[in-house]
Design goal:
mainly alpha, 434 Repressor (Amino-terminal Domain), 2 domains, about 70% helix, elongated
Length: about 130
């Protein structure tokens, strides 16, 4: 087995576990594997069979490419940090427009239409 592929798979697996709030322990329970096997996968010592990789993908709701292909660090980190594209867009907007930072804390508790209303209100008052 290609060592680079094992290394890439293990990095992607660990990143995906973190991104989905899962652990090696939860993976062992779901996959019905030993903790030693999970550790081997996460540390790049061994590579699972294709059927196990597909089961991992189903469990986390990801594509095979998410485990088997190289991803840019920026893409991976963004995927881990933001739950969805809309949240990422709002965070980028707030970063570029610091005068709206007051909305950041409020945005966790209100609906999108409420945020849009307040944003429009602030813009009209400026």
């Amino acid at each position: 087995m290609d060592e680079k592929l094992k290394e890439l798979f293990s990095k992607n697996l660990v990143d995906q576990l973190l991104a989905h709030g899962e652990t090696q322990a939860s993976m062992t329970r779901y996959m019905k594997i030993s903790s030693a096997t999970a550790s081997d996968w996460c540390n790049g010592r061994k590579m699972p069979r294709v059927d196990k990789i597909q089961a991992l993908c189903s469990w986390m709701g990801i594509e095979l490419s998410d485990l088997l292909e190289e991803k840019s660090d920026k893409t991976t980190k963004q995927a881990e940090y933001y739950l969805d594209d809309e949240a990422r867009e709002y965070a980028e907007f707030l970063h570029k427009n610091p005068e709206y930072k007051v909305l950041f804390d409020a945005s966790r508790k209100v609906k999108k239409k409420d945020i849009e209303f307040v944003t429009e209100f602030i813009e009209r008052m400026s």
